[in-house]
Amino acid sequence: MPTCRCCPITSRATSASSPRPWPRTRPTVSRTRPSWSPSSSPCAHDAGHARRRAQTLTGRRGRRAERAVKVLVVGAGFSGSVIARELAERGDVEVDVIDRRDHVGGNAYDPVHPRTGARYHRYGPHIFHTNSDRIVDYLSRFTAWLPYRHRVQALLPNGQAAPMPINIDTLNLHYDLALAGEADMRAFLDRVRVPIAAPANAEEHLQSIYGRELTELYFGRYTRKMWALELAELPISVVARLPVRYDHNADYFNDTHQLMPAEGYHAIFERMLDHPRIRVSLATTFDKAMERDYDHVFNGMPIDDYFEQAFGPLPYRSIRFEHRADEAVAQAVPTLNFTDEGPYTRRTDWALYPGCDGRRGALLTYETPCSYEDNGYERYYPVKTVDGWPQARYRQYAELAKDLAHVTFIGRCGQYIYYDMHQVVANSLMLAEQFLAARG
């Protein structure tokens, strides 16, 4: 596909070698498993065998000094796009970016719904929040911002909706109380909380703050649907993301900067990738044979798939998104969490997000968690457990990756980390800086 006005995006690559433009046609996304999906044949789990096998599969090569450095970036989300821009802009680097999807932006992709005219986040709501002035300044090169304080409510069994995270108003509504301030709320929670001096898991952490009843209603059911695990099986870090409120503050986040891009996330990626040294190819799957044509690869694919699951698969959770047009609901906040035993975890009303409301009707998104194997191998959330087996398995893959001087794994799937957007931008800037510094 010829270069578009905003960035050199092509529809697909012609082979397993470096991608090149194709005629302008509508990109076609394969509905089958990605080419890097797990092999059906078992692989030995011996670390030495896996290491030797990885070296054989990938090979080694030196830098070609008589031309510009060529880099392949696998994935056109935040991680890949930031790295591509930094290398192209700050170094004499030619960058090819590929993505197996038919769009840039990764999971932050936010197209306009054709029927309602609403801008919506295809892969669930993405709210930008950070305390870092540096990250805001960097992204402000590619977007203007709209101020936005995210609000969430939990739908209770009696039909009422209570603020989430839990605050004074949540307790007053749930227990029919009249708590007036922080002292009242702390005194009430002291009566219901479970005295646990050193909580060892997410359940104990929450019960030590809110007690058993609130923990089960506001966190337990949601967690079982979201993670297919009990709270007691999850580390504290999974639930520690939510702040504890002892006032009427209904904000979901505490960060200094809470923003939404004025023209959507997609515009950020189009501008970020608009550089003469960057070429983007969509609907293009990664193949290890591509590595021969590049001096370095920044790879955002699942690291376990890259190594053909030598130590077994890493666990992820996925989400099925159901976008419903023109459905009328009475929802006071953009996101509503479901606390019942039904399949949905949350519902998003896009009319309540700045810059997202449609002119031709309402648009709602329902989310149903599932295993990634049951959702086209779409991996969204790395799973962590108290016993640490997923983390330990990832470390085995990370150890193999140390032998690959020409490959750097990036992003959620490459590094097996649940990144927020500002975190992945910061990490990508750091990786790009390290690469450029190593080149001198």
Task: Please describe what this structure looks like.
The structure is a single chain. The protein has 440 residues and is of the alpha/beta class. Among the domains are: 1-6 and 45-104 and 273-314 and 385-440, NAD(P)-binding Rossmann-like Domain (Rossmann fold), CATH 3.40.50; 152-239, no CATH class. Helix content is 30%, strand content 17%. The protein is built from 12 helices and 16 strands. The strands form 3 sheets. It has a 7-stranded mixed sheet. Helix 2 packs parallel to helix 12. The longest helix is centred in the middle third of the chain and has 26 residues, at 202-227. The radius of gyration is 23 Å and the shape is globular. It starts with 8 loop residues before the first strand and ends with a helix.
